[in-house]
Amino acid sequence: MWRRTAVNIQKAIRQNPRGFLCSPLIHASGNSFKGINAFALTAVIGSVALCTNANNEGVNKWDLKDKSQCKADDFLYPKIEPYKTGRLQVSKTHSLYYEECGNPNGKPVILVHGGPGGGCSPTMNRYHDPAVYRIIALDQRGSGRSLPHASLEDNTTWHLISDMEKLREELKIEKWQVFGGSWGSTLSTAYAEMHPTRVTELVLRGIFHIRDKEIQFYYQSGASFIYPDRWEAYRDAIPEEERHDFLSAYHKRLTSPDESVRLPAALAWTTWELSTSNLIPPEDAVDKSMDNARFAEAFARIENHYFMNKGFFPTQNFLNDHVYKIRHIPTVIVQGRYDVVCPMETAWEFHKAFPEADFRIVQTAGHSAGEPGIAAELVRATNKFKNNKNY
Q1: What is the pLDDT of residues 82-125, one digit of tens each?
Q2: Catalytic residue among 182, 275, 289, 368
Q3: Is 351 a catalytic residue?
Q4: Any coiled-coil ranges, and where (predicted)?
Q5: Architecture of the 84-211+316-366 domain
Q6: What is the pTM of this model?
Q7: N or C: which end of the chain has fewer CB within 10 A?
């Protein structure tokens, strides 16, 4: 049965690629797959993958290519340099780095990076049309180029929300689009729920709500069944007698004053995440994650700090419980079907609580914004909103 379905799907792709991608098979709107085997569907799309330059005006031209030829660069805007950089002193301790790219008089968007602790990267500037958008990147407390590096002092979700507001006021922006993935989706949602009148649109990817079941799945037992080979290094960094609670065991090491204890733990933690973020992990994922100890220290320390404190939210379902405050805000949610870092259950529950949002499932992707299907949908979302003059 599924083989006949596969043939029909391939035929539909060849005859009308754009129409197929816009069908419920690709974009979930609450409908099921009507009995189609998801793995069979993935195999079919893998053999006849769809690529397009999503940054072309209107996304009018679609090309059929072998999946192996698709890469995020097929969809992203060209690399750009900031026209302005600055620092925002948000407390006696913390000085935050920010930069602006694109059109100084354009539609403002704040880029909310992941982790927490990940910092902004130049690639994050490439999901928005630089001729239209005023693109603002902010390194959160302790992250990226912000100082002090890897600091946990006065570093909570509520501090970060306050920092975003201080930057908005500093830049004299009335409203802005909020764009964030992974932890960035968490902070973006929390910010919007606290300041709904300041948000024009939300573009969210890899939904994460820092609930116990999400943390347990990825850092204790769950994802290890899918990536046992990548799990071993993460597991072996902790003595066997402490492995009943990896989060606490890593916390003890990541907060150690001894760098020789802290850095190996940070590298093991960071390598686990970076090597499992793609549906098909790059062969050099482990090597790349081991190259930057400075990045790993901030990434691992700050992530673990937030996870130990349950994101500093008062309840497990805080974001879904307060979603009524933002259901009027135009929103796109992009989720990789095979995301093991932020499994799709959280995105699905968020979608059920927020049915007005445009929920897009990428069937051939994991967690990373750098996967071709994820990149294409994120650019499609920002293009959808770029002519909104609601700022």
Answers
A1: 999 999 999 999 999 999 999 999 999 999 999 999 999 999 99
A2: 182
A3: no
A4: none
A5: 3-Layer(aba) Sandwich (3.40)
A6: 0.85
A7: N
* Residue 375, both tokens: 């990149």
Amino acid occupying residue 336:
G
Q: Is 287 one of the catalytic residues?
A: no
Stretch 305-319: mean pLDDT: 99
- pLDDT, one tens digit per residue, over 346-370 is 999 999 999 999 999 999 999 999 9
Q: Where are the alpha helices (DSSP H) in 16-145?
A: 17-21, 38-47
More reliable by pLDDT, 257 or 39 = 257
Confidence of residue 19 (pLDDT cuts 50, 70, 90): very low
Reported residue count of the chain is 391
Q: Which amino acid is at 353?
A: A
> Crossing angle of helices 293-308/246-254, nearest 10°?
130
Active-site residue, 149 included? no
138, 164, 175, 357 from 169: Cα distances, Å: 14, 9, 10, 27
Instruction: Select from 138, 130, 128, 79 the least CA-distant residue to 105.
Output: 130
Q: Is 122 in contact with 112 (CB distance < 8 Å)?
A: no
Closest CA to 369 of 277, 295, 289, 275: 277
Dump pLDDT digits (tens) for 42-78: 433 443 344 444 455 434 332 344 545 789 999 999 9
The answer to whether the bond into 148 is cis (omega within 30° of 0) is: yes
| Whole-angstrom distance, CA of residue 261 vs CA of residue 266 | 9
Q: Where exactly are the structural domains of the chain?
A: 2-74, 84-211+316-366, 212-311
From 305, 339, 351, 368, the catalytic residue: 339
